[in-house]
Amino acid sequence: MTIHSAYPKPRALIIFAHGSGSGRDSPRNQHVAKVLNENGFTTLLSDLLTPVETESDVKSQKVMGKFPGIVLIKFNIHHLSHRLATITRWAIDNASTELKDLPIGYFGASNGSAASIEAVAETHILNNIRQLI
Q1: Among 3, 29, 56, 84, which is most buried by a count of CB atoms within 10 Å?
Q2: Where is 117: in which H helix or E strand?
Q3: What's the whole-model pTM score?
């Protein structure tokens, strides 16, 4: 996970929930995070899939035509929302003092947007969530 902050008193923490073809290191996510940082927001970029899960999806895609019914992990919204909730709890529990009470927003794209909505709707610990983008 990568937390970026350019201001001593940020306005909010924005947690990225990227789509199925993206990740924390994508140039687009890095650019958006930089713009948000320049405008007073702290950003947290992480990958919603572990390297093992990503590898499993790559292998599964190669045989999907032979075995109907295979569902890729990157399309399992419930799994992604649970991972996003876990990342959010980690951020809340491990935040430095200046980040502890910040409002939290999700910046989601594609499957990440759906995961964001489910994480907010089903997780009571996420009372700090103020915005979905």
Answers
A1: 84
A2: helix 111-122
A3: 0.83
Q: What's the rounded Cα separation, in Å, for the pair 62 and 58?
A: 7
Three-state secondary structure of 39-71: CCCEEEECCCCCHHHHHHHHHHHHHCCCCCCCC
CA distances from 56 to 24, 47, 65, 72, 73 (A): 19, 15, 16, 8, 8
Which residues have CB under 8 Å from 6's CB, separation 6+? 37, 38, 40
- At 80-116, the pLDDT tens digits run 999 999 988 888 888 766 677 788 889 888 888 899 8
Whose CA is closest to 18, among 32, 6, 7?
A: 32
For the domain made up of 2-132, give the CATH fold: Rossmann fold (3.40.50)
Q: Which residue, 4, 13, 6, is CA-closest to 126?
A: 13
**Domain spans, the chain:** 2-132
In contact, 99 and 10? CB cutoff 8 Å: yes
The Cα–Cα gap between 3 and 37 comes to 10
